[in-house]
């Protein structure tokens, strides 16, 4: 489009081109010559040749049926031959680092005129850079892989490593010392859980749930036990390669025999000389298909022990077909007398349950942060759609019942966001051990709130989008993905009920 000279036309000039073989239309003051395209149009030729469309301003009809991105695809952008004299297109693609102008599409800390006790200047800087990175580097890969089921491309992984995003996703800590974060936009000393929240939120905006797990969620949950409980030698051997994106790790706890009730697990490890010998199976292991290392929960003679197991001939993985994209790399893992040194033990032998439980908090916080961000994206989709979609001669949002649904959706994301920011603030002011003691219940409840409200919005959004919410391309594609996959956010990361610390003497 940029390379060719665009002419200016009047409405009268366009109107003369209104038949088969000579067909022009106007969309948002842009003039398109569809003469040759008409027979290739995925929506059929007939719809373009009707009297109200051929040679006319078809803006409303177009936006009732297509996402604006259709106009920017090179094969369609080149159909534009000019513009309407004296008019400027109103609808333009946003810059890759831009904030949405739709009310409630961004959390209040990103809304002009609003302030926040939690987010400082470094968070704003970081958010802008992260949005640009996700839109330019991650999103095209996410859309491709979500569709074809392939794992995240190594080029994207390399960039995540270069920017130290893989490391930042583990939260603040010594693993970030001396690193250049996101090209130097903030220092490791500035980095806190709110910056980490921003990374998750920006990833959540891709709206591609399988790929969102595929963008190395396995590292986020599989590496902390090494960082927190592994020997310095083990850390030196594993951590740098994983943070650089050269190797992948995953967390292998759940089994067909044991999910949230991890104590039911059957994978068994016994000692033989200075080695563990491990046999058993693991199920639903995110990123397991392509992982090099497995952080494995095992039953041992004195309780449960977490052991790091590298991929070998005795450890095999096969993909599990799930309802979300295979880009997540969900695996069934078989360990058949795998031998690893005793020095691969994470934490104390027999004390694996505390390693597993303390890991859950951060995992659940990550899942809910991403889920809430996709939830907000869906609210934005609904707000836009209910404005542009006309039914019975009026926009959808002119109906009270639709406005009531939108109000409920907004209330859900806003209340969850406020709670999340409070919890994140607590995380910033507690050690890892304190977090697992004091925040386990709160994070479980918050996750329950985020996922159940997310389901309610998914249902409302599907009603609003109607048939479009069941197709994986076109207008409702983000709603379809969220409606299909948001139940997993409640399931992944374990059960969501954890009322703890009730004083024994509490009475009415
Ligand atoms: C620049 C002009 C146009 C282009 C490049 C274009 C392109 C497309 C594309 C790529 C699709 C496939 C679905 C998607 O990717 O969203 C589609 C579907 C469709 N188009 Fe167009 N289109 C144009 C104008 C129009 C107009 C003016 C109408 C007006 C009636 C129309 C009616 C339809 C219909 C009914 C569908 C099927 C929608 C569905 O299955 O939900 N198109 N078009």
From TrEMBL:
GO terms for biological process: fatty acid beta-oxidation using acyl-CoA dehydrogenase. SUPFAM superfamilies: Acyl-CoA dehydrogenase C-terminal domain-like, Acyl-CoA dehydrogenase NM domain-like, Cytochrome b5-like heme/steroid binding domain. GO terms for cellular component: cytoplasm. One of its GO terms (molecular function) is heme binding. Keywords: FAD, Flavoprotein, Heme, Iron, Metal-binding, Oxidoreductase. Transmembrane segments: none annotated. The keyword Ribosomal protein does not apply. Residues 6-85 form the Cytochrome b5 heme-binding domain. It comes from the Eukaryota. Its cofactor is FAD. Belongs to the acyl-CoA dehydrogenase family. This is Acyl-CoA dehydrogenase NM domain-like protein.
